[in-house]
Specification:
This protein has 5 helices and no strands. By secondary structure, the protein is mostly helical. Helix 2 runs parallel beside helix 4 and helix 3 packs across helix 4.
């Protein structure tokens, strides 16, 4: 059975050709990480869809207006949750990496690539 990502994630923002829409480079990178981790067997698409849906529902319950602008923030939270649940990362390691990226971004002149 050939199942497409849009079959599993019908809420995925797409253009008229059914290609995913990204508003910033980090969104495309988060998308690619999810695809890569799935291909490596960390989770199934069914598991991914369940966790992403749970993250979206939690955000809506907390007041997210669900305009699509925060979709990949939910995507990133789902990735973080699954990597921790599956033992691929710890919450502390994720926090440390986020803090390192934040320091690097603050130290990088505008328009220059961020080097971690």
């Amino acid at each position: 059975m050939n199942v497409s990502l849009s079959d599993i994630l019908p809420e995925l923002p797409c253009d008229e050709t059914a290609a995913p829409v990204f508003h910033a480079p980090w969104e495309a990178q988060a998308f690619a990480m999810a695809v890569s981790l799935h291909q490596k067997g960390l989770f199934t698409w069914t598991e991914w869809a369940a966790v992403l849906s749970a993250e979206i529902r939690a955000a809506q319950a907390a007041g997210d207006p669900d305009t699509g602008a925060t979709y990949y923030q939910h995507w990133l939270r789902a990735l973080e949750r699954l990597t921790v649940e599956k033992g691929a990362a710890t919450p502390a390691a994720l926090q440390d990496k986020a803090a390192a990226w934040d320091r690097a971004a603050r130290a990088t002149p505008h328009g220059q690539p961020i080097i971690l």
